[in-house]
Amino acid sequence: MSVLREVGFVHLHVHSSYSLLEGALPIAKLAKLAEADRQPALALTDTNNLFGALEFSEKLSGAGIQPIPGVQITTAFEPADPTQRISAPGTADLVLLATCEEGYVNLMRLVSRGYFDVDLGAEPCIAIEALRAHGEGVIALTGGLRGPLDRALFHGRSELAEQRFATLHAIFGDRLYVEIQRHGMEEERAVEGALIAMADRHGVGLVATNEPFFPGPDDYEAHDALMAVAEGQVVSQDQRRKLTPEHGFKTRAEMQALFSDLPDALTNSVEIAMRCAWRVRTRKPILPNFARPGEPGADENAELRRQAEEGLARRIRAHGLAEGFTEEDYRARLDYEIGIIQNMQFPGYFLIVADFIKWAKDHDIPVGPGRGSGAGSLVAYSLTITDLDPLRFGLLFERFLNPERVSMPDFDIDFCVEGREDVIRYVQERYGETNVAQIITFGTLLARGVLRDVGRVLEMPYGQVDKLTKLVPQNPAKPVTLPQAIADEPRLQAAAEEEPVVQRLLAIAQKLEGLHRHASTHAAGVVIGDRPLQELVPLYRDPKTGMRVTQYNMKWVEQAGLVKFDFLGLKTLTVINRAIGLIAQDGGERIDISSIPLDDKTTYDMLRRGETIGIFQVESAGMRKALVEMAADRVEDLIALVALYRPGPMANIPVYCERKHGRGEPEAKWYPLPELAPILRETFGIIVYQEQVMQVAQELAGYSLGDADLLRRAMGKKIKAEMDAQRGRFVSGATERGIAKEKADEIFDLLAKFADYGFNKSHAAAYALVSYQTAWLKANYPVAFMAASMTLDIDNTDKLSEFRREAQRLGITVAPPSINESGVEFAVREGTIIYALAAVKGVGRQAVESIVAARGDEPFKDLADFARRIKPRALNKRTLENLVAAGAFDALEPDRARAMAAVDPIFALAQQASEAEAGGMIDMFGGVASADVALRIPEYTPWTASERLQREYDAVGFFLSGHPLDEYEGLLDKLRVQRWSDFVRAVKSGSSVGRVAATVLDKQERRTRSGSKMGIYQLSDQSGHFEAIIFSEGLQRYRDILEPGAAVILMMQAGIEGEEVRARIGTAEPLDEAIAKHQKGMRIYLRDARPIPSVQQRLAARGEGEVSLVLILDEGAQEVEVRLPGKYLATPQIAGALRAVPGVVDVEIS
Fold first, then answer.
1. How far apart are CA 533 and CA 1041, in angstroms?
2. Parallel, antiparallel, or unpaired for β 563-569 and 827-829?
3. Which residues does UniProt call coiled coil (predicted)?
């Protein structure tokens, strides 16, 4: 404390990056700034939250700095109506600091109430009554310019300021300080004298604060842009909140100089820090109770044993015993596990997980067979937490719960995405709504997003910002930072050198990158407490769902002592459930997926062919190749593949395949010692799983499985001291069992290598089982499986296109969207997949549900009938336009251009019908009366074939009714081009080059290992979709030609990798140019001479070409041939455009 007295000033009002889109100081940066200035204490007072309180406490105390927990909280002093929920008038911000544990608990209560005492989605705010109830152990500062005194004084309301002061003084007494700030703002100067006088008049301490939001003056411009982003405004706007460069983090010397005339205000900052000597600390896990008072199961040890023994008996009756094991083996394993669970005091945890899983299964919510190391527990299998028999698959309990190392068990539970929320609601009801919460997560300003945000507030043209943003590689798994992107992308460097505004954009964006942008709810984590959670952690309210959410994120909520349960939504489980439902709806049986045979030949035949589109975990090209090479014919192969297909162990896949097929060295040479054969035979002598490392240590060196798990962990960490100690123990144990020291050292090194690569077998087995289940459905019920897969990716155009191609390959018809046949989701009817209306772009689910409800059991007769029956409020113009473009109205009006022209009249007629219905106008047949029964469609311009397809592509994401190359049919043969499918066959027969016509669908540019650029293009022709790459030199030459939407002729080079043909683009040429070179003439047939000016105008707009032109006029009894002077361009697109001219009968190109 004596050190504190000498420091001169302590920061008590500081905003970190947890003041979302307001603070630009990450906590690690705060610690560095305070440490650099040798500041002994620091308060964190983020706006209306304690998001960073525990992290701040741990990081600052770790740096030798006293952390002071606090908050800047919005408070309603004069609510409009005390009986109503808090409203905006009369609110101001206070700074509250905790002096002790009671004070911090009160801060948590207050901050939590800030979210729960207002309407859902409203800005957080507490009532002054809340401060009266929870003010103990709290010091209050009056908050600066946004505080209750400053606001009242600035508006000339000194009486109101006195009233507010009196209210606060009555609550806090000598724990109230009048806050004074000097950031060079006129408002501060206007109220300073009155604040000093008020403090002096009432004998209350005055305290100086700095209120930093960013590191220093050099960061002001970036922070100002951040505030504009937060408010949805632009930097140039004057009428918005602005700070000054003085809101940076000041040193003690700077603050002492700034407030040299008010030394007591500085001293009081130190005094307050001395009063706040308590800090937030981590806790040991606080386990919730399984049974409520008076309920059966209060003795958790006895209840666990009862449920586990009864459950095991049911499992054995239903599924039998694993080969080579007796019932006694199972009971012994169960007793062993129960003993460890009880000794570690975790029975309640197991019972809670089992309880909500049983509830889910009882309510037809699919649950995954397991995930992570939990599948190694026989108790979990007996309680139906998992569906894998650990004895059947050789899974180890100690990999999940190690008696030699006390740590919380961690079951990750997969639920069907459509039922997960229901399970969480059950848990809330079961354990108390106030005792259950989800976990917060924070979105950050990543490179692409921050460029777009800053570009907008700097008022840069959208197209320019979009172009710059797309130069930053998109890699969600490992996001590329702006400094990395700028270093690797010469075009970004050049843009910054050429344009100062781009340089400014990049400079600001780099300062803001990585800051927290928003709070949301974590996809999986749920915590259950033994008491109301706000007594343990502060709570946030999800503005969309209203759910309780912890204010600490996943890492810090566990550090706070709360036990996490992972409720994961696995889309694959929903696909399985949907497929089973579709099979039953289409007249099939109701399948129990947990009881399907694991040796189905049809399934393994399909896997051996690499036909794995849609199959969980094995969809990638590399996985398909491995499956083909492996010729998988048992679940163990799938388990091994899930484990092996990762960087490092992937190199062992060829060895695994060779040995599996009896090639290579004899089995006797697979094993370093014959004793290891029982452990490694399953994986053909390769150490694939972490469990094998543990078993080898047990067998050769006498480790217990618990100690062997510690060995595995030590090997993974590669800490030399730990490794040396483990090596000594391993070698000693092995030599005691008659193994030579040199051999023991050799095996230890082998284990150390594979421990780093080895995979958790329990997790691999659980996910391999899900993989097999999806493969079984696809192999045996392909139509239902593909339809279910498409529904679950209904918003992912790329996946829908891939699934449609796979369905075509399987010979499954995918019927186009139809207003009369399609539903909201993909359906199955007599072996055909009916395209979903909700899969059309820009068509919301609610709109489709309204259309389907209006249709009922009676198909729409025509466009007018559709208009009269729909609810116009449920739809919008874009919805109908996209449905028309996708062909959904073809059954009512085959001419899509005419149907598009009818969109506005449809809405007009729908509105008339709706108003008539509302007015009670019923016709003599009981229907809604409408005087205007006809739909008046205005004149319209017909679409060309290419325009029709392009609009379809824009609405659906791929071509459904045809392909843009269709209109070139006949001409392509003359250009000696191949279809992609023919080229693939030629490559597989030994060819390596070919000429292919294609439409460019999409492109990506990436950097190669050598640093040069390459292009990756998604292409399409009538035979399918394919990918090709082009390297740096070709990319620079053909980049402008290879734009999405372009029709091109490509000279391709290709080779075979595994079962895949890999293609590279050698040269590229626009298809129209290639065709124009080969055209000799064009003949246009006209009804009469009237269209000639329009024809000439359209041709002139296309420019000069190499083709002569003949007009043929129908003069009744004879045709008149007119040869136009000059040369013209002739392409299928031009021909299509000319056919759309009124009076043109046909166009021929020769």
1. 60
2. unpaired
3. none
Reduced to 3 states (helix: H, G, I; strand: E, B; else coil), residue 236 is: coil
Beta carbons within 8 Å of 704's beta carbon, 6+ residues apart: 398, 404, 698
Q: Cα(637)–Cα(631) distance, rounded to whole angstroms? A: 9
**pTM, entire model:** 0.82
Residue pair 445/511 in contact by the 8 Å Cβ criterion: no
Cα–Cα distance between 1017 and 1000 in angstroms, integer? Answer: 7
Cβ neighbours of residue 817 closer than 8 Å, sequence gap 6 or more: 835, 836, 837, 839, 840, 883, 886, 887, 888, 956, 960
Residue type, 297: G
Widest CA span in the chain: 116
Distance CA 716, CA 755 (A): 6
Report the CATH architecture of 964-1072.
Answer: Beta Barrel (2.40)
For residue 74, what are the CA distances in angstroms to 2, 20, 163? 34, 15, 18
Q: Do residues 889 and 859 make contact, with C-beta atoms less than 8 angstroms apart?
A: no
- Which pLDDT value is given to residue 723? 86
Q: Which CATH architecture has domain 2-137+208-213+248-275?
A: Alpha-Beta Barrel (3.20)
Distance between CA atoms of residues 163 and 149, nearest Å: 9
Query: What is the model's pLDDT at position 1010?
Result: 78
Cβ atoms 689, 757 nearer than 8 A: no
- pLDDT averaged over 10-residue windows placed end to end, the chain, 1150 residues: 69 98 97 96 98 98 97 85 51 96 98 95 94 97 96 94 96 97 96 97 97 97 97 92 96 97 97 96 92 76 96 96 96 98 94 97 95 95 97 95 85 93 95 95 95 96 93 86 92 93 96 96 93 96 94 96 93 96 88 94 96 94 91 95 91 94 90 94 94 94 92 84 90 94 93 84 95 98 97 93 91 95 95 96 93 95 94 91 96 96 93 78 48 75 88 91 85 84 88 90 84 89 90 91 91 82 92 76 78 80 72 69 75 76 78
- What single DSSP character describes residue 681? G
Whole-angstrom Cα distance, residue 616 to residue 624? 12
Compute the chain's Rg from CA coordinates. 36
Predicted local confidence at residue 996, as pLDDT: 94
- Assign residue 621 a region (left: φ > 0; alpha: ψ between -120 and 50; beta: otherwise): alpha
- 1066's enclosing H/E stretch is strand 1060-1070
> In angstroms, rounded to a whole number, what is the distance separating the alpha carbons of residues 1139 and 1131?
12
Residue carrying the six token digits 């897969």: 789
Choose among 791, 846, 795: nearest CA to 814.
791
Give residue 339's identity as a one-letter amino acid code.
G
Q: Which has the closest alpha carbon to 648: 744, 721, 716? A: 716
CB 215 within 8 A of CB 223: no
Give 774: exposed, middle or buried? Use CB within 10 Å, 0-12, 13-18, 19+: buried
User: For residues 800 and 797, what is the distance between their CA atoms, to the nearest angstrom?
Assistant: 5
Q: What is the pLDDT of residue 1079?
A: 64
SS3 state of residue 1001:
strand
Highest CATH level, class, for 793-937: mainly alpha
Residue 923, pLDDT score: 52
Which residues lie below 8 Å from residue 607, measured CB to CB, with a gap of 6+? 615, 618, 627, 632, 638, 775
List C-alpha distances in Å: 846 to 5, 418, 849, 876, 887.
Answer: 65, 17, 5, 11, 20
Q: Do residues 141 and 276 lie in contact, with contact meaning Cβ atoms separated by under 8 Å?
A: no
| Domain segments of the chain as ranges | 2-137+208-213+248-275, 283-359+371-406, 595-773, 793-937, 964-1072, 1079-1149
Q: Which of 944, 895, 898 is nearest to 1134 (CA)?
A: 944
